[in-house]
Amino acid sequence: xxxxxxxxxxxxxxxxxxxxxxxxxxxxxxxxxxxxxxxxxxxxxxxxxxxxxxxxxxxxxxxxxxxxxxxxxxxxxxxxxxxxxxxxxxxxxxxxxxxxxxxxxxxxxxxxxxxxxxxxxxxxxxxxxxxxxxxxxxxxxxxxxxxxxxxxxxxxxxxxxxxxxxxxxxxxxxxxxxxxxxxxxxxxxxxxxxxxxxxxxxxxxxxxxxxxxxxxxxxxxxxxxxxxxxxxxxxxxxxxxxxxxxxxxxxxxxxxxxxxxxxxxxxxxxxxxxxxxxxxxxxxxxxxxxxxxxxxxxxxxxxxxxxxxxxxxxxxxxxxxxxxxxxxxxxxxxx
Length: 335
What we know:
Elements: H1 2-16, H2 19-22, E1 34-37, E2 42-44, E3 48-54, E4 62-67, E5 70-71, E6 83-90, E7 94-104, E8 107-118, E9 134-135, H3 141-147, H4 170-173, H5 175-178, E10 182-183, H6 185-188, H7 212-216, E11 228-229, H8 231-234, E12 246-247, H9 257-262, E13 289-291, E14 294-299, E15 309-310, H10 325-329
Parallel strand pairs: 2-8, 2-9
Antiparallel strand pairs: 1-3, 3-6, 4-5, 4-7, 7-8, 10-12, 11-15, 13-14
C-alpha cells in the first residue's frame, strides 16, 4: 500500500510540474492563455461570436481559431496587451466546439477549447439544449468592467452617431455588417439604439419582444387585418426570418426562400406538392428552380404563398374569395 502511495505522489509531482498537464479542458495552464469570454457551455442567439483571450503580452505571436474543425479567417493580432478580442467567429446551429491555438515561432504552445450552443428558431437541431448550458449575454456590468479600459462603453453615442466609426458598438461588432451584400438601414449608420434599448438596466441593450412594433416604426405593416396570418407574423417575430442587421440575400432573409420555408415545413419536401402528376409524380417544384415566366427570378414557395398573411388559409398569394382556386392556378396554367 505504501508503495502505491509513493508512486501516486511521484506521478502527481511530475504532472503538476508540466504546463501541459496543469491545464484542464476549457482552461489554460498558469500564465498561459485563458478564454475570458464567452463562458464555457454558453447558449447564444447569434451566429457570430466574439472571443476574448487573456494572456501575458508576447506569449504568442499568432492565434488560430477553429469551430467544429473549420478554421476561421482572422485578422493578424499580437498580444501586446493582456486581453485580445476576435469578432465574427462563425458558428453553426446547435453545439459548437471552439478551439484556440496559440503559436510561437510557428509552433503550437497553447491549445484551449470552449463549447458554445447556438440556438435558433430555424434549426430543429438547436432546440434541444444539452444539460449544463446557460444563456450568455456579454453586456452586464461584470463583463464590461474587463473591457472598459480599452473600449468606450457609453451607449448614448450609439443612438445617432455623427460618424459611424465613433459608435461604441463598431469596434466589437464590425464584422456583423462588413461581410454581407445588404445592410439594414439603422445598422448601416450604426444607429443601434433605434432598435436596442439603451436605457434598460437588466439586461442591457435588449430588443423588446415582440419585435414587430419596432419594425413597424419604419416598415409599413399591411397584414394586420388579414384573416390568416403566418405563425411568425402573428407572433410579431420578424427576426425569425429576417436578419435585422445584414445578409447576403434581399429582404435580409436568413436563408434562401425555399430553404427558409423548409426549415419549419420539412414534411412538404417528402411528398408531391400540390398534386401528383403535375411533373411526373413530383408535383410542383419545391425549394428553388427558375421561374418559367421570368428566368432571372427563382420559382419558390413565395411565388404562390404570401409569407406574412393572406385571405387564404394556405396563404395563397393574390387570393380572391369571390373566385375559385382554379382561377388562381390559371395564372400560370392554361387548362
